[in-house]
Write a structure and sequence with these properties.
Layout: E1 6-12, H1 19-27, E2 35-41, H2 48-58, E3 63-65, H3 74-83, E4 89-94, E5 98-99, H4 104-114, E6 118-129, E7 134-137, E8 146-149, H5 151-156, E9 166-168, H6 169-181, H7 189-199, E10 201-214, H8 225-245, H9 250-271, H10 274-286, H11 290-299, H12 304-318
Parallel strand pairs: 1-2, 1-4, 2-3, 6-10
Antiparallel strand pairs: 4-9, 5-10, 6-7, 6-9, 8-10
Helix pairs in contact: 7-8, 8-9, 9-10, 10-11, 11-12
Length: about 325
């Protein structure tokens, strides 16, 4: 009989310098229910595996190590790890992040058990800039204990960090079915947060519970233009699928596409993705965003214009966004 209420999905690869802190933050959780940590170790080439095996020996009933027989890659490793989770609720913690609130899980379970209309509850975070050794706390603009994050808001950008969430396993099973029927969608946190928010309400607790480690080179950050655009493009493609699949209102769809083009055109141009750049040009043209249209068109031909576009966007931001056309979210 499975009496595990919460499964914590941890994915890790070559994170020997961070994984012990991650595991300590999970094991320190004080709860009145059983939880199990399910670890998808993606065949690391450093000492990550050995560190995890040591933790497993000390905590055999709380840690489940999946077979590290081959390298799956981030998406498939996350998928197999979550599929191995059997609890009523699932939490996520990336192998380089760590929890700092000993009652994080208890508070989140209490909330979802008491609020049947909600399927996901997140928290705030603080970032640790690894290269500089400094913490930056997340700025929040609300005073209530919880706020609701709507599907509409998530279409514009992701307000949730994976390591902060707890969600109903039933939602994830529905998403996996959706994911396996789509050819272009990726298995990552932003995609399933969008799906969850369309099915049930999403809450965010006004409290910092985790530290998000910001690395100069990671799955979501890089100095390589092609690598960073490859990451961002996955989300851009997913948005297009969701806009059509969930039959989003045409006015909202137009605003979302414009916002996404503004957010991504410099990355697409720097990487040389002419197909997407052409799509963004059409979006700017349809929204009378003349300056960005001019910047992108020249950026497709001359690399220097990409740097100039970044400069213009920074100046625009400095002056409150009054210089360029903006999208009201």
């Amino acid at each position: 009989m499975n009496n595990t209420l919460v499964s914590i999905a941890v994915t890790t690869y070559n994170q020997q310098d961070y994984i012990a802190q991650t595991m300590d933050g999970l094991l320190m959780q004080q709860t009145n229910f059983k939880f199990v940590i399910v670890v998808g170790e993606d065949c690391s080439t450093d000492n990550t595996i050995q560190i995890l095996e040591t933790y497993k020996k000390k905590n055999p009933s709380k840690i489940q190590l999946l077979n590290f027989d081959k390298n799956y890659g981030s998406d498939l490793n996350l998928l197999r790890t979550i599929k191995a989770c059997t609890g009523k609720f699932i939490a996520i913690c990336d192998g380089d992040d760590y929890w700092i609130d000993t009652h994080k899980l208890q508070k989140q379970v209490d909330f979802l058990e008491s609020n049947e209309g909600y399927g996901t509850v997140a928290t705030l975070q603080k970032d640790f800039i690894q290269d500089k050794g400094i913490f930056i706390a997340e700025n929040n603009s609300y005073t209530e204990t919880y706020k609701t994050i709507a599907f509409k808001q998530l279409l514009f950008k992701n307000y949730i960090t994976a390591s902060t969430v707890l969600f109903r396993r039933s939602l994830m099973l529905s998403f996996i079915d959706f994911y396996e029927k789509q050819n272009a969608i990726s298995f990552n946190d932003y995609n399933f947060f969008l799906f969850f928010a369309h099915q049930m309400q999403v809450a965010q607790r006004n409290e910092i519970s985790i530290v998000y480690r910001v690395l100069s080179e990671s799955g979501s950050r890089s100095k390589d233009a092609k690598k960073i655009w490859s990451f961002k493009k996955r989300f851009n493609n997913a948005i297009n699928i969701y806009l059509d699949f969930f039959d989003v209102d045409s006015k909202l769809k137009k605003k979302v596409l414009h916002y996404r083009a503004i957010t991504n055109y410099r990355f697409a141009s720097r990487s040389g993705d002419r197909m997407v750049c052409t799509e963004f040009l059409e979006v700017f043209k349809n929204n009378n965003d003349t300056i960005r249209y001019f910047l992108l068109k020249n950026g497709m031909e001359y690399k220097a214009w990409n740097r100039f576009a970044l400069f213009v966007e920074k100046v625009n931001l400095k002056f409150g966004g009054f210089l360029l056309k903006k999208v009201e979210i």
